[in-house]
Task: structure prediction
Amino acid sequence: MAKARISISLDQDQAERIREHAARAGMDVSAYLVHAATRQMAESDAIEEQFAEVDALIARAEQAADGLPADRDGEPAAELTEQERREVEEALGLVHGRDRKGRPPGHAA
Result:
């Protein structure tokens, strides 16, 4: 696999701390930085995957809300339909850590 070179600029103190941590890990600075960046990317990907369903639900709700009429004169909003109630309950379940079937995270099927 071809290697690519990336140049970064650091404060002297940051550079020294990185060198020290790399040495303690038994790695050269390049390997240490690649390992740290790869670990951070995997963590970010896992977080995005974990919240993808919630993010999609929020996006759908925002899209649906765009089509609603503006609240006028402080009139109370119309009652929710049964479908809207289910969607709200589903969203709250996701926020509180339950899947679409009401199971907590990690629950065996």
